[in-house]
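Hypothesis: this fold can be encoded by more than one sequence.
Test: take the structure tokens below, design a sequence, compare later.
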């Protein structure tokens, strides 16, 4: 395929058809992928009130998050627009009671309106042409009192990692986003904490928790070589991922957003 062929959907989003192998090997195999999963394993129970609620996993990809919630007793619906990713998820999730739905986030108000007590949308908004519109859609699917576990690729961390790698011209021009060409895995819409704050407020969502995922790991000169050092790195990441200033430079930002329950006065007027 030519380098210049765009692989974007008609809406301008990067569905992961043609990327499943690359995604699986770059994001989930190896130390960084393991670290991300190990941190989520610790942070999700700390950051969310989990009571076995039904969960909608938006852009669920290969199904790792669905698998995690399903193993903890949640009835999960995984929605994913890419047929290739969904087929992989079906294989990974064989034997588990989960519903799989081939659908984009934008189609969910018609196909899975809920309202849902718990929604996960991890590492998806940065692949969309209109992440702000997507936040409004996610908010509309959330029940009063419902929680949204949102994880986004952090634009500020992308700048730092470009500088650290010596890509000074690109960083100075602030040309950080990918273009959705070929099999590149640089997101087309990396996001800032400020955008999440603004868009949450626009949609009546409250930020309850925030953490940085991989606040140190991506900037190491030498990756840890022993199990003991890998454990130390995980302990450091966990210790500092919710503390200022470190969380702000996590490669991903992980949020718990909540739709508040209307107060008594609001419901009775
Ligand atoms: C980086 S992967 C993340 C997968 C999974 N959530 C995870 O954390 O491993 C991004 C996923 O978003 C999906 N995606 C792209 N555009 C989407 C859209 N408009 N609606 C829902 N999912 C979308 C892609 O097909 C891909 O599976």
């Amino acid at each position: 395929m030519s380098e210049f062929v765009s692989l974007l959907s008609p809406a301008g989003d990067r569905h992961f058809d043609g990327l499943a192998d690359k995604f699986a090997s770059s994001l989930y195999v190896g130390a960084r992928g393991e670290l991300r999963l190990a941190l989520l394993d610790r942070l999700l129970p700390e950051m969310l009130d989990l009571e076995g609620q039904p969960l909608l996993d938006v852009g669920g990809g290969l199904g790792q998050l669905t698998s995690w919630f399903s193993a903890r007793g949640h009835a999960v619906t995984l929605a994913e627009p890419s047929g290739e990713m969904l087929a992989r998820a079906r294989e990974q999730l064989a034997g588990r009671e989960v519903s799989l739905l081939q659908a984009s986030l934008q189609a969910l108000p018609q196909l899975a309106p809920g309202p849902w007590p718990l929604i996960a949308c991890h590492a998806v908004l940065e692949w969309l042409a209109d992440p702000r519109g997507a936040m409004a859609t996610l908010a509309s699917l959330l029940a009063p009192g419902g929680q949204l576990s949102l994880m986004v690729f952090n634009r500020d961390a992308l700048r730092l990692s470009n500088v650290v790698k010596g890509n000074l011209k690109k960083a100075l021009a602030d040309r950080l986003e990918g273009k959705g060409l070929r099999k590149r895995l640089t997101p087309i819409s990396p996001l800032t904490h400020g955008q999440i704050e603004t868009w949450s407020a626009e949609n009546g969502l409250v930020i309850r928790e925030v953490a940085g995922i991989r606040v140190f790991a991506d900037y190491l000169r030498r990756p840890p070589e022993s199990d003991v050092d890998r454990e130390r790195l995980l302990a450091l990441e966990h210790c500092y991922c919710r503390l200022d200033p470190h969380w702000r430079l996590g490669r991903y930002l992980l949020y718990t957003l909540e739709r508040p329950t209307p107060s008594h006065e609001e419901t009775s007027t």
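The radius of gyration is 18 Å. The beta strands are 55-58, 76-79, 98-101, 116-122, 142-153, 206-213, 252-258.
Hypothesis status: open.
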